[in-house]
Structure formats: C-alpha cells, structure tokens
Design brief:
This protein has 180 residues and is α/β, with parallel strands linked by helices. The chain has one domain (4-40, 85-179): P-loop containing nucleotide triphosphate hydrolases (Rossmann fold), CATH 3.40.50.300. 37% of the residues lie in helices and 32% in strands. It has 5 helices and 9 strands; from the N terminus they run βαβββββαβαβαβα. Strands 5-6-4-3-2-7-8-1-9 form a 9-stranded mixed β-sheet, with helices on both faces. The longest helix has 20 residues, at 82-101. The protein is globular, with a radius of gyration of 15 Å.
Length: 180
C-alpha cells in the first residue's frame, strides 16, 4: 500500500465526507499530529447550488467558483476565482510544506484535485511538492482522465481508492488507521 491516498469516484459519492471523517479521526486519535489542507463544499442559496467554497482544516474560508463570476477560468456555468483559491487553499498547502521542511510530520489533505483547482499552476506545483516532501497526502481526485491527475494516479507511492456511498465510512476508518 502506498503512503499517499487518492480517493476518486462519481460526484456525490462521498469523497468529501470521507476526507472530513479522516481529519476528524486524526484529530481525535492523534491530537499532536499536524493535519493541514482544505476541502470544498457547495454554496447553496435557497436550495440551489450557486458555487463552491473552500475551507481549510484550520477554518479559513474562501470561494473556489461561483455562477455568474466574471473569470477567464470557467467550468460549465461557474467562473473560477483563482485568486481566492490560491490565497486560501494554496497558501494552506504552502504552510504545510514549510512545516515539513522544518522537520514536522504533516498529513496534507486536498479536496479536491479537479478541473477548477487545476487552473492554478501554483496549485499544481504545490501538489507535486507535497507528494514528494510530506509523509502522507490524502486527496480526492477527478475520475476522468487528465494529464496532471493521471500523473499522480500512476505514482508508485499512491494507493488509488474508488469511493462509493457504501464504502466511504469504512474507508475513512481504514485510511485513518493507516496514517496513524
């Protein structure tokens, strides 16, 4: 089994739920362990999805994408807010790399490595560094083929796991146990 875990699967299968559960288990079972990273969540207004937000493990928040946002970076009806993404999520990952460089054991959590996030070259660079510099990365990753995503999936030190609603809770416990 590889030292890094990539979770993939259909949208809505529970990848983010699994990641959040892993982070909670690590906080409970290894309170001294440094866990850094972010997850994405839908932004809803009156029950309708209007975008995607970012939240770091430490609680910083930002916007990843929003319907109607003027941006040269687009996925469907969403304009990607690359500046917000980089100032919140990528900065959090850079902080994790700084900790690792000082000799701290760090688990990096990335939710997600997908089309919107990959508009950021800075994000790509930090992700590559994380996979080389920290003991463990737990990330969700797009299922569809993409050169950058495929490069990560093919690494010898990666365990690729397909998440389903039926296995997400069990997987979270198993991955947290591997990290401990």
């Amino acid at each position: 089994m590889g030292r890094h875990f990539l979770l993939t699967g259909q949208p809505g299968c529970g990848k983010t739920t699994a990641v959040r559960s892993i982070v909670a288990r690590l906080a409970e079972e290894a309170p001294g362990l440094s866990v850094r990273g972010f997850w994405t969540e839908e932004i809803r207004e009156q029950g309708v999805r209007v975008g995607f937000g970012i939240e770091t493990v430490s609680g910083a928040v930002g916007t990843l994408a929003r319907a109607g946002l003027a941006s040269p970076y687009r996925v469907g009806r969403y304009g990607v807010d690359r500046e917000s993404f980089e100032s919140v999520a990528v900065a959090e990952l850079e902080g994790a790399l700084e900790q690792a460089a000082r000799g701290h054991a760090v688990v990096v959590v990335i939710d997600e490595i997908g089309k919107m996030e990959l508009f950021s070259e800075r994000f790509r660079q930090v992700v590559r560094q994380a996979f080389s510099a920290v003991p463990h990365v737990v990330a969700t990753i797009m299922q569809r083929p993409h050169p950058f995503a495929d490069e990560l999936k093919a690494r010898a030190d990666v365990t690729l796991i397909v998440v389903t609603p039926g296995n997400r809770d069990r997987l979270a416990a198993e991955i947290a146990a591997q990290l401990l």
